[in-house]
Amino acid sequence: MNRSRRLKRFAALTSVTAVTALGLGTLSACSTDSAAAGDTGRFDVVASFYPMAFLAERIGGSHVHVTSLTSPGQEPHDLELSPRQIASLQDSDAVLYLKNLQPSVDDAVAQSTVRTKIDAASLTTLEEHGNEVGGHAAAHDSGTHPEGAAKDPHIWLDPVRYAQVAAGVGRAFEKADPDHAADYRENTAALVRQLNDLDTRFRTGLAHTKSKVFITTHAAFGYLAERYGLTEEAVNGLDPESEPSAARVRDLEHMARADGVTTVFYETLVSDKTARTIAGDAGLRTDVLDPLEGITGKSRGTDYFSVQDANLTALRKALGAS
Q1: Beta partners for 94?
Q2: End-to-end CA distance of the chain, in Å?
């Protein structure tokens, strides 16, 4: 290890001590300690969770070494960083994260002296979303904030916003690693074209449906719903582990009958118990709508694009697309 790396490692250990002393998030060894950043001979990027790691890998190509702080199958909202992970972040060349999604990551990044910090949330626009987002919500809102509204971090599920983030990440990589700027630029352009094509598939595939309303257990699809003229009705809010009230469940059952809803969607990383209970009481089906917070053996696809295409297929079926 060269002198600069030794100094960075010392600073990392110092940072761990400082974070622990300040109590900035509970540190736990249960989170992923995947391949450590640093000393790889490449541009070392620490990504907070799958959508960020996917961007880093596609844009960086062979020039980057990407370490994800969130392991496959782990619910990213619940991530707690280990001291080893914080040290790994400190030893990296760049960190790519989404502010306000994972508090432990936000705290670690704030304490870190890593030179290049890329906040995906700063590369596009965020909106306030509650349990209901889309057509009905826009009509009901009339200038007021939706019930339970907060800044919604789930920008990667909207291909247009995700393309904006990709473009910003590409620019940041070019600046931080100028020797490979031309390749980063080329890779970014190719990824943005693919995202534009995905946007076209969603726009065309959801243009003519019998219903425009879908029910999810987790309010992750607000940006997608707004983009394609749909309404997302979520059982829970932006926190996938929150419990719905009895009144909310009754409202959803009444709404399902009124709007011709056929399906209650659940996701792969949290329990489907609530979805099955509501579906059973209302005589509806259940199906998976994947928020793409991680790829596992249960995912309907092997990467961002294949899972999004599976989401489109599920929505078309549930909404009665022609």
Answers
A1: 45, 116
A2: 61
